[in-house]
Amino acid sequence: MQNIELTDKNFLTSDLIYTCSDIDSNNKIYIIDKLNYLLAELIDLSLTTKQAHWNIRGANFIGIHKMLDNCFNLIIKYQDIIAERVVQLNGIALGTIDSVYNKTSLKHYPCNINNIQNHLKELSRRYNIVSTNNRKIINDIKDVVTADILIDSSRALDQCLWLIESNIEKNL
Ligand SMILES: [Fe+2]
Hints:
single chain, mainly alpha, Ferritin, 5 helices, elongated, disordered N terminus, binds fe (ii) ion, DNA starvation/stationary phase protection protein Dps
């Protein structure tokens, strides 16, 4: 039996997985790599959204606490869809903590804040980065079905960004 080595650089298609998909194999590897990169950022983003959901304090707590859970649920929905697209392309979805740590471009989230406005500003920067990266991948890949999935995830990210930014007071 062939061994499959998993490293952070090895995004892998696997000969062990049978597929009839006729997408060119080089194109598949390229798409799998991009999707695993986006998957890592979405997992990072979902964890930071929960971090804020748990720790915020201040005016309008309950509205923002619930809003952040709505964003979390949207993000994990697309984590799942994107991870399953990787596997449909004969790849291995990389969702472990070490894969996320190695692939994400997001900065460490500060754990020493609790003010709602500070959390919202930190989150908005990260949602904007992931949304921008998601859009770049749509333009880079040559597979309309995957692109269609990423247009949906882009829409969800932009909706969350709008919800978060709408609660940021410009002068605070
Ligand atoms: Fe909760």
